[in-house]
Specification:
Blueprint: H1 11-62, E1 66-71, E2 82-92, E3 100-112, E4 115-118, E5 121-122, E6 128-129, E7 134-138, E8 141-150, E9 156-164
Antiparallel strand pairs: 1-2, 2-3, 3-4, 4-5, 6-8, 7-8, 8-9
Length: 168
């Protein structure tokens, strides 16, 4: 009596392997796209953080010699979107005397629509909106509150800075 040992898979074994493979592929697919979504969100947050840092750096440069501010556009010290920074710098008199004189500087700052503007120059990229950003003035301190929003994803990032002013 000879027994034949047939090699191969039965239909049930083949269907079981196919079902398990489908489950593994679906889990891998879900993990891949979940990770890609997290990377995109993280990248957007990093870009917004960098944009806020760049704008605050430009504010630092513009505020270097500002001693006081004048609130423009009818705002209140608690919340306003326009002001003029007033300061002084020293210049040579250019009259041959070798003397120096103080010259007044006036710099216009504003949050206009979705843009941050210093002396007529828009600082931000059009990709970013600054709709809920404002300035606050309290006790010789200027508070800058920036809320950067991505135009496409509507994700937001908040950043703030305080400047001490010399005069009221």
């Amino acid at each position: 009596m000879k027994l034949h040992n047939e090699r191969g898979l039965t239909l049930v074994e083949l269907l079981a392997v196919l079902a398990l493979s489908t489950v593994v592929i679906l889990i891998a697919y879900n993990l891949l796209f979940s990770t890609m979504g997290s990377i995109d969100r993280s990248s957007a947050q990093t870009k917004m953080r960098n944009e806020a840092a760049l704008i605050l750096y430009q504010f630092d440069e513009a505020m270097l010699n500002v001693d006081s501010i004048e609130i423009d556009g009818g705002g209140t010290p608690d919340r306003f979107t326009q002001f003029t920074g007033v300061g002084e710098h020293i210049e040579d008199k250019n009259d041959g005397s070798g003397g120096y004189e103080f010259v007044e500087d006036r710099i216009a700052f504003s949050i206009s629509g979705d843009d941050i503007v210093i002396d007529g120059n828009t600082l931000n990229d059009p990709e970013w909106r600054f709709t809920d950003s404002f300035f606050k003035y309290e006790g010789k301190k200027l508070y800058v509150q920036l809320e950067v929003a991505d135009s496409e994803s509507n994700e937001t990032y908040q950043s703030s800075k305080i400047y001490r002013l010399k005069n009221e």
